[in-house]
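User: Here's a chain of 285 residues. Predict its fold as tokens.
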Amino acid sequence: MTQPAYIFIVLLAIHFVSGFYPRAQNVTWKSTNFKTILTWEPKPSANYSYTVEFSVVGGDKQRNHHCIRSSNIICDLSNSLTDLQACYKADVLSEPPLGATSELTEFPHTSSPQFCPYQETDIDRPDFELKMNEDKTITTVYVTDPLTALFKDDRQLNIRDIFSDQLQYKVTYRRNKSTGKKVHFSKSSVIELTDLDQGESYCFNIQAYIPSRSTDKQLGKMSVIKCSNNDDQSILKVYSFPVVAVAILLILLVIGIIISVTVVCCKHKKKALKSGREGVPLQDV
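Assistant: Prediction complete.
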């Protein structure tokens, strides 16, 4: 047998065997607050499984023991990517199922895009509380730094533990029932706002802001909207004049109906009493 023919037969055999192990597709990184998961498709049949290998770009490949010859199509690598400021790549190998053997020395694989946790993980929405000083001239925003999926010395780390002074917060606020907005950036999780009109209620939402990142990754998810309470507001500030006028008319209408019903009932009662007296015969003295 000639050498070209032998090589062709070997390649054909490899292609035939590897056909039992379809390559993974759509290999994607999904990461929020450093909870980093590699996902892919399709779900394997009983004839093959998946193994994940990952490495720092240019470094040695490693394996996560939860993702070796598995039927899953996700692999949680949160605790495996120990150098958060490095960039990583991963390969998803299609292999025989656990316990089975194969004559192949190299298995079909699909590579992931490059992923850099520090620069690319999404930051989830923060929670916050509002507090006004006694004379209601200063509103303080107390932001709770979102927790991450990472632990150190048995303590769950938050995003400030990781980003340190790189972390800021973007505060967007507006007067209640107004569309005009103001923006304030703060390097602290305790934010004092002093440019608010006294006696007015304001609405706020917060986002984590990391200016060192690329533009599309600088802002985290927006928080829920919270509004400050203001007990000093007049009803005309809370509701428009037409709404107040309609409410007053409805109240007057209800009062008028109650009075009318009461008067009619009283008249009927008096009439009934009078008729009863007239029908009673006079008693002999």
